[in-house]
Amino acid sequence: MKKSMLALVALSVVVLLPSIGAVETISEDQVVIDTPINDDLFVTGGTISINARIDGDVIAAGGTIEVNAPITGDLLAFGGQVQVNNDVGGKVIAAGGMISIKGNVEKVVAAGGTIEIASSAVVERYVFAAGGSVSNAGEIGEDLIVSTQTFSNTGTVKGTVQVEEIPTPEEEKEAKAAISVLGILWKTGFFLLGLVFIKWFGALFSTIQKEVKESWLKKLVLGFIAILVTCVLLIILLITVVGMPFAVLLALFFAIAMMMAGIIVAYAFGEWLLKLVKVEPHWIITFALGFILVNLLFLIPVAGFFIQIVVVSLGFGAIIYTVKNNWGTITAPAP
User: Fold this and answer.
1) Both 148 and 209 in a single domain?
2) Are 227 and 258 contained in the same domain?
């Protein structure tokens, strides 16, 4: 539902707001519009009743919104209850606990707990509805696209009917549990990969570790820029078609470097912490400590996202410096 609401708001801003010029604004606890308005209307209130014709677009936000008279333009409504009992010349974009469409409208985009297209409703074009319960008993000129847990269609749809079922709370809990298990297994695999990398490629790992510890801020900035540049370069190579083989090769190296970046920084972090307490344990303990703590930091809301960017950028920058400093050896001709 959160994604549906966000998509609805974004669509509203793009589609409706640019058409608004002059506007009449009303904000009261209880708003009753009983005089025709020949202008766009922006209204907020606990209860909003539109009982007179509006020649323009309407933006309404309130606890209860009732449209009992025609609106010639578009309607954007956010409320606990949104009841469109009369005609709307343009589109209806609504979000609320309960949404009811009973008049003639051009198209409907709605997200809410309960969404009803009544038998008296005629929608000239399409309906997109996302909610816990969606029912249609009216007439829809084009497609009916629904995302819901409960759906009823006793009306007429001249286009296609597409229904996507929203998972129930129990199903969401099961999905989250499955994701948690997969996440633990994924992290375990990363930890084992780190152990293999450190053990089998010890010399290379130590070289990269030195780069992490020296001028780390410079490596962090370089790594962040390099990640962005690499992504753009991959897109350019793919578009050219001729460069697709190079894109595949670059993507493989990029993926490996991104995976190794976190492992490299985790070890450096663990080593730094242990040096603070003057302890020198086995390298596995050092890596395990850093790996666990870094991944716990990733879980911090909001900040965790930026910590991930810092960790990956620093590791990627260290890898680039290692390649740069050993470029002659890497590109040397075969003996």
Assistant:
1) no
2) yes
> Cα–Cα–Cα angle for 9, 45, 13, nearest 5°?
20
121, 32: one domain: yes
Q: What is the pLDDT of residues 31-63, one digit of tens each?
A: 899 999 998 888 877 889 999 999 999 988 878
Whether residue 150 is contained in a domain is answered as yes
Q: Last residue of some domain: 149, 166, 183?
A: 166
- Give the distance between the most distant pair of CA atoms in the chain: 92
The residue segments making up the domain with residue 232 are: 170-330
- List Cβ neighbours of 126 (8 Å cut-off, separation of 6 or more): 107, 108, 140, 141, 142, 143, 144, 145, 159
Which residues have C-beta within 8 Å of that of residue 50, sequence separation ≥ 6? 33, 58, 60, 65, 66, 67, 68, 69, 71
Residue with tokens 């677009």: 57
**pLDDT at residue 3 above 50?**
no
Buried b (16+ CB within 10 A) or exposed e, 65-97: bbbebbbebbbbbbbebbbbbbbbbbbbbbbbe
287 versus 105: which is more confidently predicted? 105
**CA–CA separation, 144 and 142 (whole Å):** 7
